[in-house]
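Hello forum,

I keep getting stuck at the same step: I have a sequence, I want structure tokens, and every attempt I make locally crashes halfway through. Rather than fight my setup again tonight, could one of you with a working pipeline run this one for me? It's a single chain of 74 residues.
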Amino acid sequence: MCKFLIWLSDEFGRDIDKGKLIDIYLTHQEIAEVLNTTRVTITRLLMQLEAEGKLTRHKRQIIVAERLLGLCGT
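Reply #2:
Ran it on my machine without issues. Output:
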């Protein structure tokens, strides 16, 4: 999940104050299909990452925090 979010931020993201805004809209189901898992799992992982301050969700967009970017070695 971490690497996928980093890839999305590299390919479709733009720099903002809080990190990188992923500039495409993806549903939890679409992310789950790409990662070959369930929508429920994706929802739980996103909630966990948000609680840890590694990403922020605003409406249907994801902002990847610098904290998460550093964890994946980028």
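The chain has a mean pLDDT of 88. If your local run keeps crashing, start a new thread with the error log.
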